[in-house]
Design goal:
Number of strands: 8
Number of helices: 5
Distance between the termini: 17 Å
Strand content: 25-35%
Largest sheet: 8 strands, mixed
Strand order of the largest sheet: 4-3-2-5-1-6-8-7
Oligomer: single chain
Amino acid sequence: MRKVVAFEFLSLDGVAEGPDRFFTAWDDVVDEAGAALIATQDAVILGRRSYDQWAEFWPSSDIDPFATFINRVVKHVATSAPLERECANASVIDGGLVDFVRDLKDGQGGDIGVHASISVTQTLLATSIIDELKLAIAPVIVGSGRRLFDGLPPLQLEPIRSLTSPSGYLLVDYRPIG
């Protein structure tokens, strides 16, 4: 069975929206963690907003290794409307998100990544489909914006790994329990 691995950039106060506002000081430790994350993934689930933003930015980007990864990987987009922007290997999820991801998880392949899509991550956490939750937490309090954990039912998380980068970013991995 494949693993579903969700990754989110957060501020210290839990804001996930607009991480380019607060996630600004990259260092080698953060880069290495990102490269290790995508090395195991051969499919990605994205929400519509993230897809639209990424389809505009990543095809012409040379920020590697992520640009090469996201431009080649199979992308499944959770949306009820046709995709307006073309992006290699992208398709709209047919049917409901939860059932689609369960079926994908039961198939063959590498890890399934969930990147940058707050509502997709929330839905999959709430329905116990995510196997690992990986967070990169910036040492910044943003104060406003959509928070990743707002509206979720109580969840218990088992810590798998944590480390602090030289720039002060906390990289933590959890396994949802239950």
